Amino acid sequence: MPPTSPYGTWPSPxxxxxxxxGRLSRSALVSDGTSLWWLEARPTEGxxxxxxxxxxxxxxxxxxxxxxxxxxxxxxYGGGAWCLLHGADGAFAFVDDRTQRVxxxxxxxxxxALGAExxxxxxxxxxxxxxxxxxxxxxxLAVRERLGEGPPARSVVRLAAEDPVxxxxxxxxxxxxxxxxxxDRRRLAWVLWDHPDMPWDAxxxxxxxxxxxxxxxxxxxxxxxxxxxxVDQPVWTGPDTLCFVADAAGWWQPWRMEGxxxxxxxxxxxxxxxxxxxxxxxxxxxxxxxRLGCLWxxxxxxxxxxxxxxxxxxxxxxxxxxxxxxxxxxxxxxxxGQRATTLPGVWWSPAGGPAVEVxxxxxxxxxxxxxxxVAESLSVPTxxxxxxxxxxxxxxxxxxxxxxxxxxxVVCCHGGPTASATAGFDPVVQMLTTRGYAVATVDYAGSxxxxxxxxxxxxxxxxEADVDDCVAVAAFLADxxxxxxGKMAIRGGSAGGLTALGALxxxxxxxxxxxxxxxxxxxxxxxxxxxxxxxxxxxxxxxLPEAAAAYDERSPVRxxxxxxxxxxxxQGEDDKVVPPEQTLSMAEALVSRGLECRTLLFPxxxxxxxxxxxxxxxxxxxxxxxxxxxxxxxxxxx
Length: 638
Hints:
By secondary structure, the chain is of the alpha+beta class. It is globular.
């Protein structure tokens, strides 16, 4: 008979160190026709991001220059930090994290910088680059962000090694996003938007003639049809044929413009992309034969497939439940994918063949397949409608909880708040379930994956609707006997941190909250955050000063008298999105009221921890916190 031990005290095969090491992440997958390339963020190398190339029959190798980190910081979140160049095998351009300049690497040659060096005094003005797109030879297009005195300015620029004179192609609007060059390099498509919109609220798609010194004849694509909707990912499938993703019909779906004619290619109620927090999503790709490769999310699960010329959507037979960064490779499709039971990997499905894992996968530590808890989808009714969630029961082969007892619960709130919980394998979830905790991940109002209406359900209600949805899921699980209603905690990062802390304010369901670089003061967020999100709260809460009372009402730092629970705060000292002063003020307010509050500050970390030593310390602190407040332990790391 399996041994019995109190929930939360099981000896897990998955250590905090295993989880920290397992946080290696991949992004920006690209094919050169023969090899696959991608970016790899490595916590064990101080969070450095390197460019990796996998040739057929050879193990993956790092090709970015030694000692550099490939990363864009445009809009703070970056993306589009590298691209392959035309005309030379193995040549690529990339953004150097330290300088934010665009550099060119050609095999056998010295790395050189593109464009002007930038202002002499970075204290007065500094430049950032991202969203790189190859043009011809050793020239690229990029989004440039200029920061300094006065409001930030952004533009689309042409940078070329053979021409020291830079060309500004587009400027004058607040933000620029996806850039796409037609196959004959005569035309340019780009996305732009202005404050107070975010890119998932309303963007514009423009097309113009691309000349040696600029863009002419620029026109906005179908403003009468696409006006007031989110448009992204322009993809040229011919000299005069442009495909893209737009939510004009309520879902992010593929559209096509050809010869002035505009048509929606699919009416499937699914999301064919996610919110554009970064450049370079690549969920829609041209297969050069009239077909499109597509990624789409439906009912919380990602799918990979091909859209035929007649509009039929043909899913691939593949095992991934989460996918991103699609590209055309070797006559088929390649992507970054996750199964429900293994770490992310690079996948390839040759034309007509089964999907194979190129690299990655596996499980961290000594975790066996029988130890992995798999999500059960939930649709929980609420007073406002339905909230979507996933439930992970505690699981470790050979262990069980006390007879008649129920496990403690940890509710996970994603960030954004437009993000969504993934159905793929998450080491953090398994770190908890293998110790005997139950876990629920909640796609509260505002989450992506359920159409524009669900995403907009948080407008004017941030700090309320998201909190109430998480409370509803926890209450449902407790009322149905799946968890111990007296032992429930809630955790979240960034926007999810506001939700987690707000749950202690608006509800008595939870006895503890964990906030990873979370928002705690909405007024301070508005005055202290970066330009990209500086007016985001106008939709989520309301315009100031008219909505000042709502900002105070929903800021946990101003509601500590209503909090009755323990709190763990984890914060990076270099965070520009949620400055550390917010977290320090929250800690001071909690301590002054006599509440239990543990605070950890991490030097050198910004918004989203990247270093293995930081992740290890944070996970150990979180496990010790749960052991003390949920499992009744002594607070030492299990």
